[in-house]
């Protein structure tokens, strides 16, 4: 794994990430065939709240969308990589996958009961993550639930090589645990469950953090 801040510039990161995943759709998809860790726990919260409409943010090959659809949830996947969208559509033709940027979400307020962001917020720069969380709050219905998984460690951002794709680099935002917890609280999400996993096998050498959080009531105007 290589990480540094001397690689490509931080301008237009969404396009750079999309291009990375266009180049690496095949290898990413082959090595990521299982639904996300703790996805069943996330879906249990939705069942309790009778929430059905799920946005899969940065849906990649569509494995999570396919799994949630098989559990009778109504899923829309969105991803900025054309090749990932093509792959997901061909594998799950019965699910709606939209080509789009999670920094410019084309949904109106209260559109979803829940949002799954499995290793997708890691591709947003630190200056933009707050505004994206504010938008996620907006498009979630009251009491909605969000799942997110991120790489965590000492807070940094830069370009890294995945051990399975050593010749290429992708932008990653590595969160300190208190950083992502603070961001969620600042944007009025209340954490209801949290797990950590140490890196194992050929993965990025960071602890993985999984958070399930609930949208809290909007602030009352004075
Ligand atoms: C690490 S993959 C995760 C894919 C899937 N969620 C999973 O858990 O396997 C990150 C995905 O986020 C997508 N992505 C990165 N930046 C994006 C952006 N700004 N808007 C939409 N999708 C983005 C990438 O194209 C890629 O498919």
Automatic annotation (TrEMBL):
- Positions of region (Disordered): 1-33
Entry annotated with the keyword Iron-sulfur: no
Which terms are listed as keywords in the entry?
Methyltransferase, Transferase, Ubiquinone
Polar residues composition-biased segments = 22-33
- Per the database record, which ranges form the Methyltransferase domain? 54-144
Pfam families registered for this protein in UniProt:
Methyltransf_25
Biological process terms from the Gene Ontology for this record are: methylation
Record's SUPFAM superfamilies? S-adenosyl-L-methionine-dependent methyltransferases (SSF53335)
Hey, what's the signal peptide range on this chain?
none
**Recorded superkingdom:** Archaea
**Entry GO MF terms:** methyltransferase activity
PANTHER family in the cross-refs: TRANS-ACONITATE 2-METHYLTRANSFERASE, TRANS-ACONITATE 2-METHYLTRANSFERASE-RELATED
Q: What is this protein called?
A: Methylase involved in ubiquinone/menaquinone biosynthesis
Question: From which source organism is this entry?
Answer: Candidatus Nitrososphaera evergladensis SR1
Its taxonomic path starts at:
Archaea, Nitrososphaerota, Nitrososphaeria, Nitrososphaerales, Nitrososphaeraceae
């Amino acid at each position: 794994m290589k990480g540094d801040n001397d690689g490509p510039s931080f301008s237009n990161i969404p396009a750079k990430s999309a291009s990375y995943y266009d180049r690496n759709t095949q290898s990413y998809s082959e090595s990521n065939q299982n639904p996300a860790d703790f996805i069943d726990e996330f879906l249990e919260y939705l069942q309790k709240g009778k929430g059905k409409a799920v946005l899969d943010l940065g849906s990649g090959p569509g494995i999570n969308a396919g799994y949630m659809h098989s559990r009778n949830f109504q899923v829309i996947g969105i991803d900025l990589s054309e090749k990932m969208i093509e792959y997901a559509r061909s594998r799950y033709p019965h699910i709606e996958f939209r080509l789009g940027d999670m920094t410019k979400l084309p949904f109106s307020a209260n559109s979803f009961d829940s949002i799954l962001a499995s290793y997708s917020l890691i591709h947003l720069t630190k200056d933009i993550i707050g505004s994206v969380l504010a938008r996620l709050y907006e498009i979630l219905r009251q009491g909605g639930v969000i799942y997110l998984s991120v790489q965590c460690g000492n807070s940094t951002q830069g370009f890294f090589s995945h051990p399975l794709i050593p010749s290429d680099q992708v932008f990653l935002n590595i969160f300190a645990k208190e950083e992502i917890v603070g961001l969620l609280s600042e944007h009025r999400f209340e954490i209801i469950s949290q797990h950590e996993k140490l890196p194992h096998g050929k993965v990025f050498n960071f602890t993985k953090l999984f958070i399930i959080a609930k949208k809290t009531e909007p602030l009352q105007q004075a």
